[in-house]
Amino acid sequence: MITSHFRQHTIGNEVWCSGIGLHSGLKVSLRLKPAEEGYGIRFRRVDVSDSPTIPANHGFIVNTFQATTIGFGGVVVSTIEHLTAALYSSGVDNVLVEVDGPEVPIFDGSAAPFLKMIDRAGVREQDSVRRFLAIEKPIVVQDGDSFIQARPCEQLRVRYLIDFPHPKIGKQEFSWALDNGSFGRDIARARTFGFLKDVRRLQTMGLAQGGSLSNAVVFGDQDLLNTGGFRYSDECVRHKILDFIGDLALTGMRVLGEFEVRKAGHGLHSRLLTKLMSRPDYTVLRPAHVPNVFAASAISAITGRLGRSETL
């Protein structure tokens, strides 16, 4: 018998929301709709002629500056990572995301509003089995002192380290594993963050037009500008894990592996996806082939062998 963890899922009902785009500053409406088995996560720009659809897949990433942007034929949807992280952690494999603008709403800068939206919709099991992307041997992508190393593991685990020369951030490290409820408890509420000097620079470039203290953690030269303080003492590194999960969702599969990430961002995340998906260094697993130890330890989770390393 194939258990629920190994079957595909979609949402139970259509749900709708609206908000402001972080970079565009535009008001955007977003609708999640149930989708058939094997559909994956796809974004439809309903404000564009013929309503083109863009798969949330690594092959459609067109920009990773300040956010993950997917596109096709000149039509784009940006800042998708908080929504894709919420969908992935909730175990949603198939969904149509309709949006009437070029960017997903930022809300409070975290994934928590999207989790609430998915909770309202419900999650429904489907008949088809999922595909699993298993890391078969260590593999590394690196850029200076930033790197991501993936190793074999029978569940999804992430250890992330950041180091910013700011008195309110400094060096932060957090280790996290995807299991039942861990994303909502440990990661989802962590907000995007930035520095006031960078926000001003981005705004002159036409970005961060919707940014404010209500949707981001913002640092001045020495202090945190948000009067409410942090949601977690190490909120910044937890948000980096949130972004990483959102980008990892663009494999289109459930991922089994342990990831050590140091001082990375969307660009390096994307390079990892490209390497994983373009080489025979991974195996797509069907449920019958998933190791028994994984089935025993992770079967209740709705969301969530060794060789030489290689460097890209």
Reconstruct the topology from this structure.
Layout: E1 7-11, E2 15-20, E3 27-34, E4 41-45, E5 53-55, E6 61-63, E7 69-72, E8 75-77, H1 81-89, E9 95-99, H2 112-121, E10 123-129, E11 132-135, E12 139-143, E13 146-151, E14 156-164, E15 170-177, H3 182-186, E16 193-195, H4 196-204, E17 217-219, H5 235-248, E18 254-262, H6 266-278, E19 282-285, H7 292-298
Parallel strand pairs: 4-9, 11-18, 14-18, 16-17
Antiparallel strand pairs: 1-10, 2-3, 3-9, 4-5, 6-7, 7-8, 11-19, 12-13, 13-18, 14-15
What does this structure look like?
It is a single chain. With 312 residues, the chain is of the alpha+beta class. It folds into two domains: 126 residues, Ribosomal Protein S5, domain 2 (2-Layer Sandwich); 167 residues, 2-Layer Sandwich (lpxc deacetylase, domain 1), CATH 3.30.1700. 21% of the residues lie in helices and 32% in strands. The protein contains seven helices and 19 strands. Strands 11, 12, 13, 14, 15, 18 and 19 form a seven-stranded mixed beta sheet that branches. A hairpin with a 5-residue loop joins strand 6 and strand 7. Helix 1 crosses helix 5. The radius of gyration is 19 Å and the shape is globular.
Number of domains: 2
Number of helices: 7
Helix content: 10-25%
Name of the CATH architecture of the largest domain: 2-Layer Sandwich
CATH-wise, what's the superfamily of the largest domain?
Answer: lpxc deacetylase, domain 2
Q: Count all strands and give the number.
A: 19
By CATH, the topology of the largest domain is lpxc deacetylase, domain 1
Rg, Å, rounded: 19 Å
Mean pLDDT: 89
Report the structural category. Answer: alpha+beta
Biggest sheet, in brief? 7 strands, mixed
Order of helices and strands: EEEEEEEEHEHEEEEEEHEHEHEHEH
Please tell me what the overall shape is.
Answer: globular
Q: Indicate the proportion of strand residues.
A: 25-35%
Give the CA-CA distance, first to last residue.
41 Å
CATH C-level category of the largest domain: Alpha Beta
Q: Detail the poorly predicted runs.
A: 292-312
